[in-house]
Amino acid sequence: MVGARRLLAKSPMPSDLPLLPAPPLWRRLLAFVYDLLALIGLWVFLTLIAVVINGGQAVTGWPRVALLYLMLWLASGAYFALSWRFGGQTLGMRPWRLHVQTADGARLSLARAAWRYVCASLSTLAAGAGWLWCLVDRDRQAGHDRLAGTRLALLPLPRTGLD
Predict the structure, then answer these.
(1) pTM
(2) What count of other Cβ atoms lies within 10 Å of the Cβ of residue 97?
């Protein structure tokens, strides 16, 4: 833990850097696919708990299924919001060097991260229209970023010491 703190103290936080460029749509989508892989594990685990609570039977009937879907959506929101709040990145965003921040480059509050998740959910439900917005936006930001007052930035390549 102390080693991680020391490493983080030496590397600049994205808010310490000049305003970074926005990533292209393909990087956003691939990061989302990576995150879906992590979420599938979470969804299977939570569904298994729901089945156990339901006496080993499949969850059926619209009230119970709706409650299960709500639980899965809230758990996904917790994954995204906590990742964005405390690291600025989800697991899927790390390999693609994506970082979420406020419009002025600061770290997201938990409330803003949760609001971004709600906006991104609506963007996705609207046939991905919010995601596609970055293709026409002057700053290449997605619709949910505009609504939430956030921006997605492409981090520079890390220095290897060989240059």
Answers:
(1) 0.86
(2) 17
